[in-house]
């Protein structure tokens, strides 16, 4: 075994021993006990009170209560932090064809395939002359028929 191999074997054994010690000792304790969920909520509540007391000018009128009301406990969940607009009326007004491109007119605004419809989290997936297919993620689909046209 040459010197390089010995160093690699030593480093691997040292890492395995250190990992076993950390796992067997349990979670690392800090002097103050670490920041918990309650501490975070208290911090956000104190910031919200400071913003409300200052009239909201420190954040240019941003309403921090929206963040507190829609806060989720785990950042790894697939839900979005921002508030969703429910019951947005979407109307497929028509389409425009320019060469090989097609644009859908939804609520009198142009969208191409892949665009996010304003006011929703719906993405334009397909544009046909008589309908538009919108989708949010992999699970929620919505089909808009042409306004005043055949369904």
Order of helices and strands, N to C?
HHHEEEEEE
With strands numbered from the N-terminus, the spatial order across the biggest sheet is 1-2-3
How large is the count of helical segments? 3
Separation of the first and last Cα atoms: 76 Å
Structure in words:
The protein is an alpha+beta fold and 151 residues long. It has a domain of 54 residues. 30% of the residues lie in helices and 22% in strands. The protein is built from 3 helices and 6 strands, in the order H-H-H-E-E-E-E-E-E. The strands form 2 sheets. Strands 1-2-3 form a 3-stranded antiparallel sheet, with no helix packed on it. It has a 3-stranded antiparallel sheet with strand order 4-5-6, with no helix packed on it. It is elongated and about 75 Å long. The termini are far apart. About 6% of the residues have low confidence.
């Amino acid at each position: 075994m040459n010197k390089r191999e010995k160093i690699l074997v030593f480093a691997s054994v040292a890492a395995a021993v250190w990992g076993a010690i950390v796992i067997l000792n349990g979670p690392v304790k800090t002097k103050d006990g670490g920041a918990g969920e309650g501490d975070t909520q208290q911090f956000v509540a104190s910031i919200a009170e400071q913003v409300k007391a200052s009239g909201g000018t420190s954040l240019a009128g941003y309403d921090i209560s929206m963040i507190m009301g829609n806060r989720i406990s785990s950042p790894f969940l697939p839900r979005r932090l921002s508030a969703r607009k429910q019951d947005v009326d979407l109307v497929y007004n028509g389409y425009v064809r320019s060469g090989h491109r097609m644009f859908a007119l939804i609520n009198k605004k142009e969208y191409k395939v892949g665009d996010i419809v304003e006011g929703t989290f719906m993405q334009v997936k397909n544009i046909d002359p008589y309908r538009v297919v919108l989708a949010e993620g992999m699970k929620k689909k919505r089909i808009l028929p042409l306004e005043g046209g055949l369904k």
